[in-house]
Amino acid sequence: MHKILQGRSLLLATLVPALLVTGCASGGGTEAMGGSAASPGAPSSDMSSMPTESASPSESMEAKNTPKGIVQSYFGAIKAGKVDDVVALFDNDAVVALEGAATADGTDAIRKAYQGMMTGPMSGTYTIEDTEKLGDTYALVRATSQQDSQNYREFFILEKSSNGWKIDRLISNQSS
User: Fold this and answer.
1) Rounded CA gap, 31 and 36, in Å?
2) What's phi and psi for 74, nearest 5 deg?
3) pTM of the entire structure?
4) Sign of the CA dihedral running 95, 100, 102, 104
C-alpha cells in the first residue's frame, strides 16, 4: 500500500506543475484555468444537457465508463443532489479537496463532505475543458463549473481498475 501511495504522489508531483503551466500558457495567463477563455469548440456547459440514454445499453455503459463519462456522471449526480451517486464515483481511498472544506480522505470523509455541501438538487453549469489519458491506468480531467454565481475549477485524477474508471483525486477551488 505504501508503494502505491508513493507512486501516486510521484505522479502528482510530476504532472500537476506541467498541467498548470500548459493550461496557463494556452490562454496567455491564469484566465485559461478559470475557463473564461474557452475555445470555440468547447462542449456544452449546461448541466441539463447531460448525455441521454438513446444509445444502446452497451454503448451507453462504455461511454459512461470513460474518464470524461465519469466526470459527466459526477456533475449529473451533483445536479440531482444524490450524495450516494457522487460517492460511488470515487475510489475507496480517494482524496477530495473542495473549496472552503477540510480535505476528505476516504469514502466516509467524502460522504460527510458532500452531505454537508448538498442539501438537495443543485442548479449549475459545467464545462469539461481537457481530458488526457496517461497510459492505460490514469487519466486527468480539467473542468470548470458555476454554482450560485460562483465560478469553480476542478481537477480530477482518475484511476482505472478491474471495476473501470474511478475518481482518485479531486481538487476544486474558486476561480477569479
Assistant:
1) 6
2) -60, -50
3) 0.68
4) negative
| Burial of residue 141, with CB atoms counted within 10 A of its CB: 0-12 exposed, 13-18 middle, 19 or more buried | buried
In angstroms, the CA 113 to CA 102 distance is 8
Q: Which residues does 119 contact at the CB level (< 8 Å), separation at least 6?
A: 81
23-60 pLDDT, tens per residue? 443 343 333 333 333 323 333 334 433 333 334 444 44
DSSP state of 118: -
Phi-psi label, residue 149: left if phi above 0, alpha if psi -120 to 50, beta otherwise: left
Contact 153, 58 (CB under 8 A): no
Q: In whole angstroms, give the CA distance from residue 67 to residue 73.
A: 10
- For cell 445536479, the residue is 79
For residue 45, what is the DSSP state?
A: -
The rounded distance, in Å, linking the Cα atoms of 172 and 116 is: 16
Enter the C-alpha cell of residue 42. 468547447
The grid coordinates listed for 1 are 500500500
Give the bridge partners for 173, in sequence order.
Answer: 153
**Identity at 62, one-letter amino acid code:** E
Amino acid (one-letter) located at 52:
T
Q: CA separation (Å) from 85 to 139, 148, 175, 176? A: 21, 22, 26, 29
C-alpha distances in Å from residue 92, one per residue of 23, 50, 161: 29, 26, 12
